UniProtKB/TrEMBL annotation:
GO molecular function terms noted in the UniProt entry: ABC-type transporter activity; ATP binding; ATP hydrolysis activity; ATPase-coupled lipid transmembrane transporter activity
Name of the protein this chain belongs to: ABC transporter
Domain ABC transporter: 364-603
Family matches, as InterPro entries: AAA+_ATPase, ABC1_TM_dom, ABC1_TM_sf, ABC_transporter-like_ATP-bd, ABC_transporter-like_CS, P-loop_NTPase, Type_1_exporter
CDD domains: ABC_6TM_exporters (cd07346)
Length: 627
């Protein structure tokens, strides 16, 4: 295979501050665009909710006006104007009622919008998952899919249902109140926000490296999580070889590094945060307003009741600033979640033909196929798995794929059921390119039994007839008998009605035979077998081989096997190496040619002979033989 193209050097070094800023701006722009796209279906309603909240925020200032006017009336010389007092009281009550009503209405609008958005997104994601190539799922963890469907969508809840309305209230309520302060006296307006500029300066200083540091913290947490998973996954091996302390050391080192980074950043920031907290604390605001306000009153520029009103308004500023800060942080989280959702929705889909065709037969022709895995894990050019592969599978024959690990066997086999499409070349069934066959029609022609068996949490019966829901009870039983699993199913508490994972707990070999029963019942004329006996014990392997023998009768079969002894009777053996076909033919022909297959066969025979000798000498037990 040709040497990979060298990756060009980046224009800037990774630690170049300018390059980091450019990258940060690009990421911020991408997140903003993704968030706008994801929120587009509810944009009109969120804007309406914000407009309603503006009315609620305007009503917020009414109680402050009422307090000042009530004070003026009660402190005025002469008899108290009772009518004016009650008028002011009712205006305050009306203002409070209007604020509550409009705030409730705004949140109701956003909450219903959030429910609709979550439903739409989950439907879009589920629909998208149904149209992605099956190969996408083999390279994407189930945790990542679950995170997109559940966590990432849920992360949008606060932003849609609360953040925008609450941020609007937090910004506009103080603004309306401050306007009233300036109406009372411009000096009172300035006094109410006296500490805010200092708070803004210290907060901006604290947040200057927040994004980069949060990414650093996330990387540290990911490393700690990886060491925990590594230790738990390999705990049996670690304990067996007495390396518990060594395995713990990796976790301790990761935790210490994270702790040092976290303390190095948060130590100074906590001091700055303490200062910002003091600057908007109620005691300091009260001290500044009453202290300076007394001087203003003494000068005769303002009245005491006006000072009381402006001081009460100044006291609501800390809550408003904290709400805005929370909304900004929530928007950052939601933007990251939206970007992940947008990336998922942008994944290339499995192309569906506009004018689907039906295969005229069950022969398979693979012609000059090239396939490169998509770029991932820091590999910008991807990995080329197949390089000009051509293979013919005559109808009703068995073709075996063999070769060293990484030679492209599984990749080639998965192109037949369209787990992915080739970059160039074609895979044809009955003369029709698989890309021109509707997916439902394709899976009526092609079935597969993989080494990684997936049984669903449903009855054993429904698991077997997954590909043929209309099958009768007798047909299900016949398929199970042919797969050598019928008797085992009858031993379950509820027989075929037993739910997998609840009352039915199958071993690896038993689960494999259930999947073979499923394939037998589906009765597809073309079959792909990928290491069906890879993890089976000797007894299960014999039963699986018998079941596979029944499954292969009369079908066009493509089989992958590392155990060469299982494919000696194949009609054609295709030998792959580094993504290319280097040999093909029958067993005796390939052995006589003295090529790669001959050397693989010699190694296989030597290993089998040594195993037989060990068994004869009693040097190993059945467990080691199984391994």
């Amino acid at each position: 295979m040709a040497a990979p193209t060298p990756t060009p050097e980046p224009e800037h070094a990774p630690d170049d501050p300018k390059a980091a800023r450019v990258k940060a701006r690009a990421e911020a722009k991408a997140k903003s665009a993704a968030l706008a796209d994801v929120l587009a279906p509810v944009k009109t309603r969120t804007v309406l909710a914000q407009f309603v909240q503006i009315l609620a925020s305007a009503a917020t200032v009414v109680p402050f006006i009422g307090i000042v006017e009530l004070g003026r009336t009660l402190l005025a010389p002469g008899p108290t104007d009772t009518g004016r007092v009650w008028l002011v009281v009712w205006l305050v009550v009306g203002g409070l009622a209007a604020r509550a009503l409009f705030a409730f209405l705004a949140l109701a609008i956003t909450h219903f919008a959030d429910l609709d958005l979550q439903a739409q997104l989950r439907i879009r994601i589920a629909d998208k998952l149904g149209r992605l190539p099956l190969g996408w799922f083999s390279r994407t963890s189930s945790g990542a899919v679950r995170k997109s469907v559940q966590n990432d969508v849920a992360d949008l809840h606060y932003l849609v249902a609360h953040a925008q309305v609450e941020a609007t209230a937090a910004v506009l309520s103080p603004i309306f109140a401050l306007i009233y302060c300036f109406i009372l006296d411009w000096r009172l307006g300035l006094l109410a926000i006296a500490t805010v500029p200092l708070y803004a300066l210290t907060y901006s200083y604290m947040a200057r490296d927040l994004t980069a540091e949060m990414e650093k913290m996330d990387t540290g947490v990911a490393r700690i999580s990886a060491t925990i998973v590594e230790f738990i996954a390999g705990v049996a091996v670690v304990k067996t070889f007495g390396q518990t302390g060594k395995a713990h050391r990796r976790f301790i080192d990761a935790a210490d590094e994270f702790n040092d980074d976290f303390a190095g950043y948060m130590g100074p920031m906590l001091r700055v945060q303490a200062i910002t907290t003091v600057l908007i604390s109620a005691p300091l605001i009260l001290l500044v307003n009453l202290g300076v306000g007394y001087w203003l009153v003494d000068k005769g520029w303002v009245t005491p009741i006006e000072l009381v009103g402006s001081t009460l308004i100044a006291m609501i500023l800390p809550t408003a600033l904290l709400t805005v800060s929370t909304a900004v942080h929530t928007r950052q989280q939601a933007s990251a979640a939206a970007l992940r959702i947008a990336d998922l929705l942008a994944e290339p889909e499995l192309a569906v033909p506009e004018n689907p065709q039906v295969p005229a037969g069950h022969d398979v022709r693979i012609e000059n196929v090239h396939f490169t895995y998509p770029p991932r894990l820091g590999m910008p050019s991807g990995v080329k798995a197949l390089d000009g592969v051509s293979v013919e599978l005559a109808e009703g024959t068995v073709t075996a794929l063999v070769g060293p690990s990484g030679s492209g066997k599984s990749t080639l086999a998965t192109l037949l059921p369209r787990f992915g499409d080739p970059d160039s070349g074609s895979v044809r069934i009955g003369g029709v390119d698989v890309r021109d066959i509707a997916p439902t029609e394709l899976y009526r022609h092609v079935g597969f039994v993989l080494q990684d068996v997936q049984l669903l949490t449903m009855s054993v019966r429904d698991n077997i007839r997954l590909g043929r829901p209309e099958a009768t009870e007798e047909q299900v039983h016949d398929a199970a008998r042919a797969a050598r699993i019928h008797e085992r199913i009858l031993e379950l508490s509820d027989g075929y009605d037993t739910v997998v994972g609840d009352g039915a707990h199958f071993s690896g070999g038993e689960a494999q035979r259930v999947s073979i029963a499923r394939a037998l019942l589906a009765d597809t004329p073309i079959l792909v077998l990928d290491e069906a006996t890879a993890f089976a014990d000797p007894e299960s392997e014999a039963q699986i081989q018998q079941a596979i023998g029944a499954l292969m009768v009369g079908r066009t079969v493509l089989v992958i096997a590392h155990r060469l002894g299982s494919i000696t009777h194949a009609d054609n053996i295709v030998v792959l190496d580094r993504g290319r076909v280097v040999e093909q033919g029958r067993q005796d022909e390939l052995v006589a040619n003295g090529g790669l297959y001959a050397s693989m066969w010699a190694s296989y025979e030597a290993g089998t002979t040594r195993q037989d000798e060990k068994i004869a000498l009693g040097a190993v037990g059945s467990d080691e033989v199984a391994r």
